[in-house]
């Protein structure tokens, strides 16, 4: 992550007004949540919404597990059904919501909750490059709650992973995917795609992805938001995904496409009250913002806004933010932070 404010004017958006959670038509019917609580019989999973955010008649068409039911427009486990830590973690279902058919993957809630987000993966003390499949796998291996990564669109429209607008001397937004993947990364990695990241994360139920949508210098911010959300939905990976962006309009676009998407804002110029009013799930601010605004964590929690802080790499700062009980800490030193949260 870095300060991308200068790119906002080129991002390709007109300003969206403040919207409530379900004010605009979503891309498809959706749920509040895609995770299934463990060890709870007849557990409530989520309400079911049509594209307009309304309750609609819902029928389960396919459920190979036989575990799920619809009751009063809510998706639940059946009366005597429950999931345990020993059960498999992924449960595909297909439902009809009103006149539309949609498929989701429900995921047993084995997800780690230790606040640790590996910044561009766990790369600094391991073999892989930043934002590589290797660094993602290492973040999973060491037990991070999340692994953050950065997404742009290639010239031919593929969401690809790179922190900087240029990689290996090639401008990401004006270079094709095939050309970008000729760039040699450490550990024999190549420049990965969002699809490859999703394929990797959905092989396990412990670590989530934190997808940063980069502001566009070529007026393609809305296209990036749409393609990322479409990819997440096509791969049925909603349970694994958090979104973040420096561009407030990208945040709003993600919420328009998926009203219950977990999206946090990075720039630091919005109050928790503003974020809450616009239906933004969280703030994800540089650690310096918390020094300027000592009550920021408390104010956010009062508004029901999640709090992430970046990029925290030294032990005293980690201790301070753990004392503040922020929800997430993004760091280049996940191993150090993991040692602290285990104490």
Automatic annotation (TrEMBL):
Domain of life: Bacteria
Entry-linked Pfam families: GDPD (PF03009)
GO molecular function terms attached to this record: phosphoric diester hydrolase activity
Annotated signal sequence range: 1-23
Keyword line: Signal
Keyword set includes Ribosomal protein: no
Biological processes, Gene Ontology terms: lipid metabolic process
GP-PDE domain ranges (all copies): 114-341
The name this protein goes by in its record: GP-PDE domain-containing protein
Organism (species): Chitinophaga silvatica
């Amino acid at each position: 992550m870095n300060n991308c404010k200068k790119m906002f004017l080129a991002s390709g958006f007109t300003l969206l007004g403040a919207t409530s959670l379900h004010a605009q038509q979503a891309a498809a019917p959706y749920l509040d949540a895609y995770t299934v609580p463990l060890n709870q019989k007849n557990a409530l999973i989520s309400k079911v919404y049509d594209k307009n955010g309304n309750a609609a008649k819902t029928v389960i068409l396919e459920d190979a597990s036989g575990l799920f039911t619809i009751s009063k427009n809510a998706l639940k486990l059946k009366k005597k059904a429950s999931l345990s830590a020993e059960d498999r973690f992924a449960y595909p279902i297909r439902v009809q919501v009103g006149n539309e058919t949609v498929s989701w993957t429900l995921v047993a809630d084995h997800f780690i909750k230790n606040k640790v987000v590996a910044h561009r993966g766990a790369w600094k003390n391991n073999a892989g490059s930043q934002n590589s499949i290797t660094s993602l796998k290492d973040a999973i291996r060491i037990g991070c709650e999340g692994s953050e990564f950065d997404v742009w669109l290639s010239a031919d429209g593929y969401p690809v992973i790179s922190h900087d607008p240029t990689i290996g001397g090639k401008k990401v937004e004006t270079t094709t995917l095939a050309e970008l993947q000729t760039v040699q990364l450490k550990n024999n990695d190549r420049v990965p795609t969002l699809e490859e990241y999703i394929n990797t994360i959905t092989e396990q139920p412990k670590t989530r992805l934190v997808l940063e949508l980069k502001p566009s210098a070529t007026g393609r911010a809305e296209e990036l938001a749409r393609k990322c959300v479409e990819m997440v939905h096509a791969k049925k990976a909603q349970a694994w995904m958090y979104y973040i962006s420096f561009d407030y309009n990208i945040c709003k676009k993600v919420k328009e496409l998926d009203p219950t998407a977990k999206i946090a804002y990075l720039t630091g110029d919005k109050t928790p009250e503003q974020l809450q009013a616009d239906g933004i799930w969280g703030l994800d601010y540089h650690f310096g913002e918390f020094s300027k605004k000592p009550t920021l964590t408390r104010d956010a929690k009062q508004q029901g806004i999640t709090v992430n802080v970046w990029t925290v790499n030294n032990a005293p700062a980690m201790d301070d933010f753990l004392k503040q009980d922020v929800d997430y800490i993004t760091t280049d030193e996940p191993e150090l932070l993991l040692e602290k949260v285990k104490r």
